[in-house]
Amino acid sequence: MGPLDERRRRFEEIYAACHDPVLGYVLRRTEDGHDAADVLAETFLVAWRRIDEIPAGDRARPWLFGVARRVLANHHRGERRRTALGDRLRTELGDAVRAADHHTESGVIAEAFRGLSDDDRELLSLVGWEGLDTGQIATVLGCSRNAVRIRLHRARKRFARELKNRGANAEPHLRRARIAEEEHA
Amino acid sequence: MNHDKLIRRLAPITDEEAARMVSPQAKTELSEQITATAVPARHRARRRRGLVVGLPLAAAAATAAIAVAVTSAGSGATHATPTPSQRPGSGPVKVQLAALSFSTQGKYLVVKVNDPLADPARYRKEFAAHGMDIDLKLVPVSPSIVGTVVMSEGSMKMITARGRCHTGGGGAACPVGVKIPLGYKEHAQVVFGRAARPGEQYSSSAPVEAPGEVMHGMTYRGRTVAEVVAMLKKRHVTVPEYRYEGADGDNAPYRNGVPPEKVQPGWFVHDASPWAQNQVLLFVGPTRQTHAPAGNGKPPAPGFPFATPTAR
To answer: Any stretches that span the bilayer, and where are they (chain B) (predicted)?
Structure first.
């Protein structure tokens, strides 16, 4: 462990680079701004305390997602940690999330996605929402790449089945997604 | 195979949208507050422990007993370097029970805590005797969640006991233990709640009105401080800490909690939280807040401008 200044410098670097992605990660998984603020604060508090364990470079972000994931799970389980942190953030996020009125996607695809287990959804979200590759997901989940590959494969199969059960064929939707993306570009 | 694009479109919010919800000040404030917290003693303690070789004799014996009882797990880990100061050599040998008990259930190892006040190092050793790298910690918690899992890392499975406790987010599904796959080698941390000693601040708590908590069954939101304090007095509960929340949810001018002597008896109570044995923390302010009817399972939305540091 380096001196405090060194520790602080590293933290600030990680914080600057990862604040937005971690906030995005959390907000995509909770509908309550106050919860999101608590989870974000707790996640970075863990980062501060365990700074020596944070992998260098690009792997810091998935590591933080892993922490956020556990904090979130504990939060859902009812653990509400009292911290002196992020009062302003709580207020702002509380208001912003209420105002944003979380657009919950409707339609077959959303339904099919919601029909999956939490684990499957998380895995597919890490790819689709956070844009992570297998190695990074392995860091988030604390398992091997191989395990991620296998689980991902199964999750995708189950998603396809959910889609099929709902009479949806992925193809036209995919085409629509592609078109939308091109328009966007 | 690309379902990923479909899923991407389901994302409720992008990083950019999320970032726009937070002001630069809030972002900086959080970072500053975090780096102002003490650097954990945990790390230093762990290092020091790493250097102290050997176990108190009794603990070593206990570990061996477990190893025999469950599997023939490697006793190689328990190299008992003599630690003469640890125990008197004579006198009746008090058999120290194992801090943890292990049993197997199918593909899982079931761990129960026998001694909730044991040194965490003992737990770690006993886990190590099973070839596992698990940190078990016990933190003081409010009465209704004593003996439950407060936090866990790694891919452990929760054992829940419905109705055994009530948690804010988990409802009645009370996590009372963890299941660890046999042969689990990754590092993991699990934190259980233990009873707090008198005056010891809770690290974690159930909602203050949950069954078993000191304000169970009490209607207090929107009442005045004077009324609530009087109600609490009948239950022998005191209020050592207050948090301030003004009309717009802002906690200025008392960002770090309002000193009890500044709290006006006519202020309103917004929320409460267990603090320590027979002590609660009250969220208060000069304007009455609208409160959702209690008991809908959701944590009260306007509350929690936390300023209570966790006791660690």
So the answer is: 51-70
